[in-house]
Amino acid sequence: MPRLAAAGLDKDFPILYYAKYLLILNQFFREALVNVSLMRYPSAFLPILMSFAALALVLGSVAIFGVVHETDEGAAAHLFQLLMAAQVPFVAYFAIRWLPRVPGQALVILALQAGAALAAFAPVYWFQL
Description:
The protein is mainly α. It has 2 domains: 1-40; 41-128, no CATH class. 81% of the residues lie in helices and 0% in strands. α3 (42-65) packs antiparallel against α4 (75-98) and α4 (75-98) packs antiparallel against α5.
């Protein structure tokens, strides 16, 4: 017990030493759960799923038909445009609702949504060159 006394803790109260660190861990896990709980809302995960669906649509179309430059865009291009445009209301609702309440966690999810959208647009830009 000399180490506890040297650290400023009374040897009769080592439980306070452990309680302090349990409170710190509790706060850490509570903040981590806020991140996970925000991702449960449809306005958080639907734009990411829609972006990945658009990415899969583009890559699947290129894999099946190849890179074809036509005057008419085709069904795949129209579906891509609908998927990407339909994300805007979800992202706006998420930003309006969660940015004022928990800005740090909301910005992380907004960055994930933006990254997923950029990942969906990247092959379109790549194959147009």
